[in-house]
Design a protein that fits this description.
By secondary structure, this protein is an alpha+beta fold. The chain has helices at residues 6-19, 32-39, 43-55, 84-90, 109-115, 162-169, 186-192; strands at 59-62, 66-69, 75-77, 95-104, 123-132, 135-145, 174-182, 200-209, 212-222, 227-229. It has a six-stranded antiparallel sheet. A two-stranded antiparallel sheet has the order 1-2. A two-stranded parallel ribbon has the order 3-10. Helix 1 crosses helix 3 and helix 2 packs across helix 3. It starts with 5 loop residues before the first helix and ends in a 7-residue tail after the last strand.
C-alpha cells in the first residue's frame, strides 16, 4: 500500500476529530503553527489543507482568529423523492412534526390553475412543519386530489406523513420539480421561526398516479438550515 502524503494525513486527522464529535461545530481547529509542529509540515502544506477543507464546508476561517468547525447543513437529493421523516432519522437526527392546517379547499386561482376549474371541495390542503433536532427545517404546504386519495383529510400526521400515505393510496407514477429562491411571507416566518430576510429554498413538486395529478406541494426550506445536491454520472 502506498504511503499517504503528508497533506492527506493532516486532512484525515482533522476530519476524524470532526466526524467522531471530538470537535463539535464552532470548535476551534488547532492553529497552523500547531499543525506544522505536530506533523513536521511546511506552512504551505498546512495552509493548503485548511483552505481545501474550508472550500468543502467542513471548516470556516476568520482572519486573525483562526479556523473553526462549520455547522453542516442537512442535504437532500434533488431528483429523488423520499420521506422527510426517514431522511432525517437516516442521518441521525430527531424528527417530529406539527400540523398547522388540514381542510377541504374552496375554489381558488391556484386550484383552478393546477387541478382545473370547478374543483371546490374535492381538493384537500395541509400545512405541516417538519422538525430536525428541534429546528423547523421544512414547511410542507400540500394540495391533494380527494378523488384519488379519498381519506387524506383523515390522516393522523402524528403517526405518518403525507408522503407515506400517498405512496400507499396513490403509488407514484411520475413527478415534476421546480426549485427557486424566495423570501418568506409572514405566515412562513412564524411557522419556520425565521426572520423576514432569511433566504429560503422553495421546491414545487407535482406528482401523478394512474395518469392523474394527485398532489401539488410547495416545500419551503430555510436556506441556512438546508441544501440540495446530487451526483450525476453519464452513461458509458
Amino acid at each position: 500500500m502506498p504511503k499517504k502524503s503528508l497533506s492527506s494525513r493532516i486532512r484525515e486527522h482533522i476530519l476524524l476529530h470532526i466526524e467522531n464529535g471530538d470537535w463539535p461545530p464552532e470548535h476551534q481547529v488547532p492553529a497552523e503553527s500547531e499543525l506544522m509542529k505536530q506533523f513536521d509540515a511546511s506552512r504551505m502544506t498546512v495552509h493548503r489543507v485548511l483552505k481545501e477543507l474550508a472550500a468543502e464546508g467542513y471548516i470556516y476561517r476568520q482572519r486573525g482568529l483562526g479556523s473553526f468547525v462549520a455547522r453542516r447543513t442537512p442535504r437532500s437529493e434533488l431528483l429523488v423523492i423520499t420521506d422527510i421523516s426517514e431522511e432525517i432519522v437516516s442521518r441521525g437526527g430527531n424528527y417530529y412534526c406539527e400540523l398547522k392546517y388540514l381542510s377541504a379547499e374552496p375554489e381558488s386561482a391556484l386550484i383552478a390553475h393546477v387541478f382545473g376549474e370547478h374543483r371546490a371541495g374535492s381538493i384537500a390542503r395541509s400545512k405541516v412543519v417538519h422538525y430536525e433536532n428541534g429546528l423547523p427545517i421544512q414547511l410542507e404546504d400540500r394540495h391533494v386530489d380527494l378523488r384519488t386519495a379519498p381519506h387524506y383529510l383523515e390522516v393522523d400526521f402524528t403517526v405518518t406523513t403525507a408522503h407515506k400515505y400517498l405512496m400507499k393510496a396513490a403509488p407514484l407514477q411520475r413527478a415534476e420539480h421546480e426549485l427557486t429562491a424566495v423570501l418568506p411571507n409572514r405566515e412562513q416566518q412564524v411557522f419556520l421561526n425565521i426572520k423576514p430576510d432569511e433566504p429560503c429554498l422553495l421546491l414545487r413538486r407535482k406528482t401523478w398516479s394512474r395518469d392523474r395529478l394527485v398532489s401539488y406541494a410547495e416545500l419551503l426550506y430555510p436556506g441556512s438550515r438546508f441544501s440540495f445536491g446530487g451526483v450525476f454520472e453519464p452513461k458509458k
